[in-house]
């Protein structure tokens, strides 16, 4: 299975357990892009629509791209009352839009699935001169060094998933620098970069359900996945059945130059 389609199989859990983005992000995005009822935006990877409603509420017309058919259907139903949303169930790589046609192109925790050498030139081509791009990712972490529960979870990863890409550090400077460099190297200007923060609480069942919405977890063997989830549940229950998750949102804004 295409790893990107893992999310298609857990649409309900994705909607329930993946975080909504903080209001400050949308306030900044809308002010930076200056979108309104006459604007046209492209959303890459709508998923279950965690980043969609605030943009729809500006009156802006949104064309949304979604690879997963179940996710596309979920969002069509979720936003059925909005006439200004058109969801296309295709990969972004296959989308053929007109050059210079969008005032805003944005993607929430999805753009990393698209090869850099394909994604950024396509963004540049589709965007109107002066139009804005907004790329953002939510990065949850449970890496508080002074928290016994977080330490215990880290030990489970070390024992059962030593090759996991799970990070315990909140700030990953090299990735930020690489993304900024890509944006600038492909011709965008007026770049703004921010880190936003949010906290959530989960019990054992909820946290395991959240894990099941991540592709690296879904790709584990059945035996390892079961053992890993059981250990995670046990340790959260042993610490009062409450886990604090700390979200860091990477947020990048930039423009296509008015004159090229």
TrEMBL record:
Q: What range(s) does the Methyltransferase type domain occupy?
A: 42-134
Q: Which domain of life is it from?
A: Bacteria
**Which InterPro entries does the entry link to?**
Diverse_substrate_MTase (IPR051052), Methyltransf_11 (IPR013216), SAM-dependent_MTases_sf (IPR029063)
Gene Ontology MF, one: methyltransferase activity
**What keyword terms does UniProt attach to this protein?**
Methyltransferase, Transferase
CDD domains (alphabetical): AdoMet_MTases (cd02440)
One Gene Ontology term from the biological process aspect of the record: methylation
Family of this protein: Belongs to the methyltransferase superfamily.
Designated name of the protein: SAM-dependent methyltransferase
Its source organism is Paenibacillus turicensis
